């Protein structure tokens, strides 16, 4: 999980590095460019970077990223463009409102835009923005009236616009998002958390205005946010191509690429969940999905090789540097760990309202490169034959 935060955290540091190391040079260059062309670079360049991810996001049906980019562009125009006079209190709500919108859009799964789900997303994305634009002064007036009447609660401080409250909100929601099932959330959660913090730095400054030039720092934050969204597009596209959505393991395409690179000594293991069809018939497909998640989580941490989902209830483990005997002995602990694991059934997920705990077993077939098995495809075929032997021998065992 920590690895997924490394690149977003590097991006979070970029505005500070750019403003601290190149702030003066950027201001001089922008001034020269504006005198030559009349174009305000620090207002235009951030918008260009926000629009960069929109086209690939549309091509790959990643509507959340499109909406987030457009939302952030709208908030940037409101905050620094001088286009809209919303009132001080309304502008202080920019970041927390954007944070809530971003987190809600992250939670909702992709279902396209040209349908009722898409209209809901569009409303979530732009209704608060339009409210701030057209009713900003009224919001500010109402907000100023409420603290005056309830100063014992508010103490004349706009808590809803507090940077610290926003950070707390982001932290709590990101932890919740990371716990959701699906391969996309572990990618989106840290990236969108950094995106919200970049918006916080751009609009609020978080006391950075005393150190850096405000315009340069805000522009650097928005440019970095655009890069973060672009990274999300390609990271999610890679995940859809190479990662299995249900189990989180690398999928068949990733396995094919791995096999093409294999050389030297290696073994391949084919694993199959025993009586999986019967389990689905008895408990339902939702419970069957839970079984596949359980098995894949144990296979992922096998300590022998890299696990892939081959298809259906079958998995492949690539054991580089292992002969067939060593691989089979090492996988014995994995087989036993799966047999010892218990899965709790919930009534709403199990067929006919069955509840309680169940266990499953997995059979393994292992083969190594050598002899007649010279190519990865031939080793896979040999491992499949060994798996069939394990099934015929009574299941829940490893055969070579």
Question: Helices and strands in order, then pairings?
Answer:
Blueprint lengths: L2 H35 L3 H11 L2 H6 L3 H18 L7 H5 L1 H14 L8 H34 L1 H4 L8 H16 L6 H20 L9 H29 L9 H10 L4 E8 L2 H8 L1 H16 L5 E6 L2 E7 L3 H17 L2 E3 L10 E3 L3 E7 L7 H17 L5 E2 L1
Parallel strand pairs: 6-7
Antiparallel strand pairs: 1-3, 1-6, 2-3, 4-5
Q: Return Rg in Å.
A: 27 Å
Shape: elongated
Terminal CA distance: 35 Å
| Uncertain segments | 146-161
Q: What structural category do the secondary elements indicate?
A: alpha+beta
Please state the average pLDDT score. 81
Query: Total number of helical segments?
Result: 16
Strand content range:
5-15%
Largest sheet: 5 strands, mixed
Spatial order of the strands forming the largest sheet: 2-3-1-6-7
What is the total domain count? 2
- What is the succession of H and E elements? HHHHHHHHHHHHEHHEEHEEEHE
Which bin fits the share of residues in helices? 55-70%
The total of beta strands comes to 7
